[in-house]
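Protein in question reproduced for absentees:

***
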Amino acid sequence: MAAAFPFLPAYVQASETIENTSTAEHVIINGNRPSSLPKEIPTTIEGINARTMEQTINAIDAEDALKYLPSLLVRKRYVGDYNHAVLATRASGTGNSARSMVYADGILLSNLLGNGASFTPRWGLVTPEEIDRVDVLYGPFSAAYAGNSVGAVVDYVTRMPRQFEAHAKLVGFGENFQQYGTDKSYSGKQLSASLGNKQGAFSWWLNVNQLDSDGHPIAFANKLASAGVSSNAGKAVTGAIADKNPQGLDWWILGATGQYRTTQDHAKIKLAYDISPTLRASYTLGYWRNNMNSGVESYLRDAAGNAVYSGDINIAGKKYTLAPTDMANSKNQLEHITHGLNLKSNTKGVFDWEVAASLYDYSKDIARSPTVAIPQADTGGAGRITDGAGTGWNTLALKGIWRPNTEHTAEFGYQREAYQMRTQVSDTNDWMNGGALKRFSAFQGNTQLQSLYAQDAWRISPAWKAIIGGRFEQWQADQGAISNATSTLPFATREENYFSPKAAIAYKANEDWTLKASAGRAVRMPTVSELYQGSISTTAIVNNDPNLKPEKSWTMEWTAERVLNEGKGFLRTTLFHERTRDALYSQVNTMVTPNVTNIQNVDEIHTTGLELAYQASDVYSRGLDLAASLTYANSEITRNDKFPISVGKWQPRVPAWRANFVISYRADEKLSTTLGLRYSGKQYGSLDNSDSNAFTYQGFSSFVVADVRLRYQLARQWAASIGIDNLNNKKYWAFHPYTQRTVVGELKFDF
């Protein structure tokens, strides 16, 4: 029955069964592989396996695997988007990266050093060719996860061989991008190779990947028309494009910026050794390197036709001042390393245990930008260097499973997550290649979360099952400090304790119907960046609040699932509700004089919604598969004393409607074709919903996007695919422009 559901993780055949109390009844995973998943899963779970990905998705980045799963959206702006591809879930928008957790083989990839677009999960540590399966748990209903799971938990399980195997894949892609004054083609390529083998008790896997991506511009220099001064002063220029900003105000678009050219190298080795038939040790070493150069394109021309990048300019009789940084290049040089170690027993007897540890290290993290006008990308000059060396996180988990009888399965454990952020901004006399000189600013801080959790799955009767659990957490923030060029302001240590109860119950009415209900509390702690990343003026803190409260959410869901067509399909209906107090958002505090804009606690947000999910295989004819989902969410700010005008408004970046539809046809064992549709409704980017003009730079728009893919098995070891993402060439926005029509071609070899 499970194999009939192409998007379910149950499709994967393996050696260990994990209860899910769903229509499929079991999620099948390999118990010998590291995974963050608990054995008993008291919540809605969706997933996709490697075979389905290969047939249906133009997957270049790891996050592409989530493209059609219910209620999920990854804000991927271009191929290889490494610093803004944030995951959104049912009641959390793309500005809330800390409200979801992403793992790969038990290693935490979520960047919980901060919350927001620039703290994206480290997707680059996984490549699509490695992925064996991806599972998504919706909501904070498992005691095995911290409060960051309030939105969802994404768990990647990557390949481990059972015999010798080798793989290689070449991908090419191209996009014609037209926006404002830019009309250019951007392209790239990706090469991936893998080797693996299992020899007796020892198995190994090696994957290398290089992505060379030339992305479209993601930002646009602009000036409000009202900022101009009526005057004949300034250099007269042409080429400025009249537009309206998200608030409907007239502005001039002056040029394109943030045109990223990235070269990303990935390497990973995984080793596993079966110490005994029931005890396995495994180790993962991952390496990711990214060199990025950002270009600019000025639309402005002087009387001689020369491009204008800075200085006083005159547009339609008004003078404006272009700062050197309004149209500025930038560079990133990043090298990140991750380690994962796992020791796991799998007796399936009375007691099993697991020890897991991971480390994510910013071995090198350099950002360079100019502070002077640079008319050409290869021109040096004064600038600043931002160095993040010393930043990273580490985790430790001790887990136990006790099965005293067939009615009870108890899971318990201790977890520790520690985050360290170190950022120093220095002046330099050569922003492209020079060394750091005088300190301009700096900030640092640590947070640590230690947790004890336990949950018991009680098989009350053949038809009834309950899961009850709880999580006790001790949170600490210390070594916080913020600096300007001459002064450092330290912050006091904070320590707080919280308890989060969890409960779920499932009733299997008959062979076709299953009913479930889940409830759980989640406490999402403030991140290092939210607490300490700001600036100081004399001895006053600017732009941050080290006394932020954690977000506290109660989430509930009620689900009815029905098996269809003799096990070849299913239909799920889920009603969900979330009440969040002290939500963390950047906003204006209008209750003080002068007004302050920084990250603050929003008193209360309520979200109520309905999610429908449908999947079926061999619909009407053999080889025709369907998957569809529809999500409605009414997400409203119900109390916000610091910014009262936002009360009654929609939560930012959470649309009322989302939908996905995928139809795939396998004509035979060689040929498969897929059409996918993605829809997201109206949304806002601001707490007061003042950004009503969505289809513009810095707007957050609705969209309907179509994708197609055709795959053909050329021979036993060779396959080719061609696909188009955004077939209808929709121009849509999430502050930055999304990718326009992109053609993707693949050639793959498997041995």
